[in-house]
Amino acid sequence: MWSLEKDREVGGAQTGPGDSLLRRLCAKLQPPGETHIPAPREWRLVGQEQDFSQLFTWISTSPISESDITSIAAYQYESNDFKILHRFDTRLNIIQASVNESRTVLAYVVKQKLNDESDEHLYRPYLIPLKPKHRTKPMPIENERNRQIMVQFLYKKSKSFLRRSIVDKLLVMIHLECIKSVTIKLEPDDCDDFANESWSMDDKGLHQDTIVKSFSWAQWDPVHQVLYYIHYRIPAQSSIEVNDYKMQRDTTPTLSGFQFHEDMPHETVLNIPLNLPHPPATSETPSCGLYEDDAVPLRIHDCSLDLQIVSHPSGVVCICHHYLYKPEEESKTTNEDPKNLAENENGVHFAYSITLLHHGYVTHCVIPNLIWSLAKSLRPTFSLYKDDYLLVHLPTLFTHLLDVGLSHEPCCHIVLPPNFCVQGDHLVPLLGNNKSTLVDLVTLDIVKVNISNSQLITFFKSNTSIENKLSILHYFLHHDLNIDIVEELIGDICIKPSDEVGTFCAVLKEFLTGGSYIATKNCLATAALPLTRLLPFTTNMKPSLVQISGTTLSVSQEELNTAMMLLSPRQRIVPFRSDMWTRLWDYLSSVTIRFKSHQVLEKLKVSLACYQPEALSRCSTPLSPAGGPPPPRRVAPPFTFQTSQTNDVALPPFFEIDTCTASKQEHVISVNLREVSMHLLKHGSAVGAGQGAQGSATHVHAVATRYAAAQLETSRTLCLIICKALAATAKPDQERGFAFIDEMNEDHRYMLLKALETYYLAADSMAFPLPQGFSSFFTYLGYRSLPFPNFLQYVHRNVFEIQIDFLKVVIADIWLDAGDNSEAVLRGIRLAALGGRGRGRRALVSCNHSAALLLRARDHAATILAGQPAHLSRLVSNSRITNTRRGLAAFPSGDRLSPLDTFLDLLTAKASLNELDFNLLIDATISAET
């Protein structure tokens, strides 16, 4: 066998013999049984066609003349089909080629030096029939030029062609001059065998038509048969500006798109004004003269403008542009000439921007202070990864995954370390059904991008930026839909030290927002799905600085401030025919205004200030929290928490029930439901207009109700995840509630308290409801874990809620062994006062301590003296009202009247005997005196 380079490892996956194009092609050319034939060399990828075939050229030694000859062949990577198209008699420097659909005509471009003493190169395109009856010479299409020339055949949807003639169209692109459409007609020679039929071509069968006069950059999209190019438009000028020579010379670079059809003329579907940092060369201004001559992707450009467009049939269109620049302060003292920059190694800024037409956003990415030699040699790779990501690979620096899918706005971008998933110096996408296949143009190695879940988990757990953590969590929530991995990631942060508190809170907020969105989306009818574009889906909306492997990446995002001119479906040659551009139009026609949590927070700030739990009831809340989410219409919500290793259901450490008449949970749910409903009603009519679906009142109610239910379910799931990570979940036969806390050791209690405190902060700042029973459990956990003064600070700041079940247990616990300890008595009195008058009364009734009796008696007397209706408390002693006067002799005075008797006479003057609790007053008096 011919000697090939050894296999190498790429991104953790072994690149074997079947993953190298060079190995595959050499195996196709090796004759059976021959082992001493000189190996082909200088392989080059010179083109890709719509049928996913690649064109390759190579140099070999002729067995007849023993001189070097050039051959060209078509190869399909997925089917492993190989066919030699033509062998030339001499050695040619073919930089690019294209073959027509019927494989009967080959177009190619030859580049050669002007002379041995000059560095100037000349380009010239040729045509040659592949099945001639008699051997013919290549036919030149254009004269030699020192400007880059590329050629490309147009393909048709139909794979059949007429026997009598073949008519093909060829695009000839000449940099800074024009783009021509050449019509080629081939006539069949007399032949009985159709498979071996020969075709002839002459000058009369060629017809040229100029479709673009002058352009500075162009790219051909073989999949969608679209030609993108940049030209210049003179802006509209007033009569005063006509005489201004400078204004006449100013032009605006514009990106246009030609959509070619099979049996109809092409049409201009796109016109976008561009804002380029360095204007490219025009036909009137000289270019830099340095061409890369890369045929994949097929582009016409020089070093003055490096632009690439990546698109998808769903309507995703990304304009990728990278450039180098110096900071403004340094550029004043440093000449911008590249020769001077090469001498100044202090560093330049490497930047690339991604214009997302389908979203109307521009994402700017800047890497500051790179050495000029490194920045100049970097060749970024732009390729789609899976369905929702754009991969940007910078060798030796990092790999950037931008979330550019149609499901939501672009914001959660992942920055991976170098050689994490991709390795190669000059990678380009390889056409095929797998969008994640790249090829290295230098070595012809195949690189299949496959970022595994285990790699992302490991990267998440390492020391990385908070933006990366949120983006990875977003990936598993929205794109991978893997709740088990999300549980593992959150559990890992739970046990991190205290310096991760900010990151922990941000991750919890992301889970609450993203989990509620997914749970709502998965249980809605299809007709209501457009309204989900109005619901929040992430908290990571503003990318910022990202540190990765010693490299700083600054990411910013802005809306397009230039009007995008897109041809509407009604203006197309074939109106309303579905293609990439109609889908892009439909997506841009709908307006997206996401609901924000601060809209609920503003209402809660006012309503919670005068919040009275006893004044509410379950009938006042449209969505009862005890009822849970309504039955789904499509599939069940994905956040039903259950351990994946065992069949035991994980239970929270508290009882999921509130003993109070109404809770804060109901109030938060009610305000969320109202605000979401109003937001959907206000903006729902504009959503989905391009798709022909509008949000009706029925859909608004369904979406708002399910979103409110999903908020509660997601909040409960997150609480369970945290408790499970800290080994604080209960088994079905285990004690829960306050008894669960009493059985924990101090360190365990404190860890659980800090984690639940962060959870409470995340839910409260996002206006999310808390699970039933959580407030009392959380308050008791804080009471048992914190010093009493610190605990009171949490209460005063409304972090801990004093519920009736907490008061009953804590006050009884404080006063059980208090005795005459005045400090313990004051603690109980203070807690009873913080719980409110109603809850304080109910808590004191269950306590037999003398201080409780005294407080109840004073409250009872104060109520009567104030003229308010008094409610008789439960009797503590066995005394009856009929023999109340029997206790008067216990405190005789000179006139046989006691102070209590005088006080009772005063009370009876303010209220009837039926309103007085004589036993309570007598027992309190006796307890106070004894």
Average pLDDT reading = 79
How many strands? 34
Helical stretch count? 23
User: What structural category do the secondary elements indicate?
Assistant: alpha+beta
Largest sheet: 6 strands, antiparallel
How far apart are the termini? 109 Å
Give the strand line-up of the largest sheet. 20-16-17-18-19-34
Shape: elongated
Report the uncertain regions: 1-18, 238-248, 614-647, 690-695, 873-894
Radius of gyration, taken over Cα atoms and rounded to an integer in Å:
39 Å
Strand content: 15-25%
Give the helix proportion (percent range): 25-40%
In summary, what is this structure?
The protein is of the alpha+beta class. It has 23 helices and 34 strands.
Walk me through the topology:
Elements: E1 9-10, E2 13-14, H1 21-29, E3 41-48, E4 53-61, E5 68-76, E6 81-87, E7 94-99, E8 105-113, E9 121-129, E10 139-140, E11 149-153, E12 166-174, E13 178-188, E14 199-200, E15 206-212, E16 217-221, E17 226-233, H2 245-249, E18 252-259, E19 267-273, E20 299-300, E21 306-311, E22 317-325, H3 328-331, H4 338-343, E23 348-356, E24 361-370, H5 372-377, E25 381-385, E26 389-394, E27 398-403, E28 414-416, E29 427-429, E30 437-440, E31 446-448, H6 453-461, H7 466-479, H8 483-494, H9 501-521, E32 545-548, E33 551-559, E34 565-566, H10 580-589, H11 598-607, H12 664-683, H13 697-725, H14 738-742, H15 746-765, H16 774-785, H17 788-796, H18 804-816, H19 822-834, H20 837-845, H21 850-865, H22 899-910, H23 918-929
Antiparallel strand pairs: 1-2, 3-4, 4-5, 5-6, 7-8, 8-9, 9-10, 11-12, 12-13, 13-14, 13-15, 16-17, 16-20, 17-18, 18-19, 19-34, 21-22, 22-23, 23-24, 24-33, 25-26, 26-27, 27-28, 29-30, 30-31, 32-33
Helix pairs in contact: 6-8, 7-9, 8-9, 8-13, 9-13, 9-15, 11-12, 12-13, 13-15, 15-16, 18-19, 18-20, 19-20, 21-23
